């Protein structure tokens, strides 16, 4: 038997419950199991404390002990009836097989096209039973029917696991969670038992879903709307989820979804007025946004009454990149939970609606799931609803869309229970939604509902699906729709009459003709206690004055706090040296470096009431060993004892400081932080790339959210991105943060791009980001070389006086009238030019630093150039190749600052297909060449 089980992955490695049953028999009486298993367990017993990973050491179930003592299992003289025992064990195998594989035989496909290969493990005969055994009574491990005939057990299993609902939960290793799902569905036999009122409400909602789509299809022929038809049960499912969530105390629900069914959700779930939707179809929508977006990308918010009180719904804005909105939603939820002090996630619930192919096809979801249970990103579990129309974009052949049985298999990475359900059975749909909500609220873990349905039209309404799926769409053309099937069912049950069902359609259409809802579902005068007023951040120019300097006494007091470590806390010698130097820096005994400048900025903001959140793959220490916001005891292993975060211990009443070393997925993490920052304008939210070019993996977030979210959707966001950059001979992947890409995206004062050369500039820039009543993304092109360089450090006086300087003029003692050339640059190349000028003892070349590349400081730069009336040449110098860096993006801005008789020149590396060379010798030669060019008149 053991060899047989080992050869069958479903019965050995994947069937711990069955092996557990055998082990329990062995513990009761070793003679109850066959010789091979007995030998296996004997060997296990001989290794105290060692437990095979497939055989949990569980206590003997008292019910099994009683079972083996019953007369039919014991022959005269006390001998065990081996045949009876064998069949008992086989019954447990059969039950376990249904629990593991029953979903494969469930009736999930409304079109009845789903291939269902025969599974021998679900056949009683496969387990040695005959027709003669059907009336035999056995003991079961099914709660509520501890003893039943084989026929009764099989009927129970088919009803529970092979009806309109298919369950996957046996992959969950947590016994409590696994047994909860098992008992929840088995106690109900996966069969809804809702009352008349709920059935009528469900019919009303599915009617609204279908009728709206049909109305739009006729009224706006050929226009894209990404119809929900075929998946209409999503609307009653969401309604049930919202009402149920409100009843258990959820006060906010943040929803993320792509296009499919979005307009339906806006109208029938969130209560958007149909007349407003019609205006968008007709192009009459008036908006103050400079660009706006298509109607099926727009977000919406509403307050909905529920049995537990009002619940605030927010549908997140999304781009066409489908699932990328998901981590954005999670970030927004985390920020809202933080604002409420909702540590368990009982007040704010994330809900994500997916498409089948996108759910498993886009790597965004792997990253989002990977965030789910981490300290810095968890939201207490997400309810996932997959609108599985079985066709993806145009391909329904799963051999081309995934390498797994189900599109939901990716959720198994976080051991989420998965509830598959037939979309033609609205009551089964709301039953699994009820289970999903209860599971999430109890265990605070992700849960997935797979709504198996179809798509009545093509990818959009202008698409002809028969081109790629002729047979499927012939069946769809014959399908009456979920509403018709459910209405007929309720008519047969006597819940409604045919006239009542028809009147629901007529009433809804009449309301649409008026541009109204059949019933008002939103609260128009409800005031939320945790709402944010964004109006104070509107219309503020980037030059708005900010007093970012801080008295030295305050800096001294705060430094004393964040350089103190607990008694007995052993620091690494190099870290201890850095801490000592920070004390010297604030005292004015040595200049302040970038790491200290950051700490001073964070500490002052925290004590002024602004929370700070920093995340990135190595941001606690800092990739370049400069930050050390998290200190590690060299003699303690345990995280809660061996780690100290000084910025969390500044004052009794200070804002929250969070620093998280993130997962290695830039796309999901940056999207999360964008969502967080949008919902936390009073918090300095920072994402730091380990190297600046690592942000390439998150380009979709930068393009579709960070740089365009305000002009498309009116979403303000103060997210700060720190991108280490600088040509130090480290090769193509560790040099460039791709400055040119960010500048290419700059327009309409949408973002800020800084490329600073001094530590004090970092201090003032970070403080300005929060103190100025404006929320724009801040992109810091941060030099790696300058982080700890003495020559880039600043005197303490630059922190106690002054402000951020968009342009820094020449610091040398030059005769302005003798200057013939003005060099302009940004970042660390300034020090290469400064050294080149000093080595050559040049007195007629001035060097001006542009610290803010966008919004471009035209007035400030023009004033600096005007200081040199005899300079006939203005030269831009950069360390990046000519076709990269800032040159092509700011050339026209430089020309606008020059006199008509001045000539604009360029010095830098020649154009290159690669961001940087990979050989130090070449790097050094290139640097020498363009510095020489800059210094030669």
Query: Which descriptor suits the 3D outline?
Result: globular
Low-confidence stretches: 1-16, 47-70
CATH class of the largest domain: Alpha Beta
Number of strands: 24
Can you give the helix content as a percent range? Answer: 25-40%
What does this structure look like?
The chain is of the alpha/beta class. The chain folds into 4 domains: 187 residues, no CATH class; 306 residues, Rossmann fold; 249 residues, Rossmann fold (3-Layer(aba) Sandwich); 129 residues, 3-Layer(aba) Sandwich (Rossmann fold), CATH 3.40.50. Strands 3-9-10-8-7-4-6-5 form an 8-stranded mixed beta sheet. Strands 14-11-15-16-18-17-22 form a 7-stranded mixed beta sheet, with helices on both faces. It is globular. The termini are far apart. The N terminus is likely disordered.
Secondary structure topology:
Blueprint lengths: L1 H5 L9 H13 L6 H11 L16 H7 L13 H20 L35 E3 L7 E3 H12 L3 E4 L6 H14 L7 H24 L14 H14 L4 E6 L4 H7 L5 H8 L18 E5 L6 E5 L9 H16 L7 E8 H6 L2 H8 L11 E6 L9 H4 L16 E5 L3 H18 L3 E6 L17 H9 L3 H12 L4 H16 L38 H11 L10 H14 L7 H14 L3 E6 L14 E2 L6 H4 E2 L12 E5 L4 H13 L4 E6 L10 H8 L2 H5 L6 E6 L13 H6 L7 E3 L4 H13 L6 E6 L13 H4 L6 E2 L12 E5 L3 H12 L4 E6 L1 E3 L3 H8 L7 E9 L5 H10 L6 E7 L10 H16 L2
Parallel strand pairs: 4-6, 4-7, 7-8, 8-10, 9-10, 11-14, 11-15, 15-16, 16-18, 17-18, 20-21, 20-23, 23-24
Antiparallel strand pairs: 1-2, 3-9, 5-6, 12-13, 17-22, 19-21
Helix pairs in contact: 2-5, 5-6, 8-9, 8-18, 8-19, 9-16, 12-24, 20-22, 22-28, 24-25, 30-33
Any key phrases for this structure?
937 residues; alpha/beta; Rossmann fold; 4 domains; 8-stranded mixed β-sheet; 7-stranded mixed β-sheet; 33 helices; 24 strands; 39% helix; 13% strand; globular; disordered N terminus; EC 1.2.4.2; glycolysis; oxidoreductase; thiamine pyrophosphate binding; 2-oxoglutarate dehydrogenase E1 component
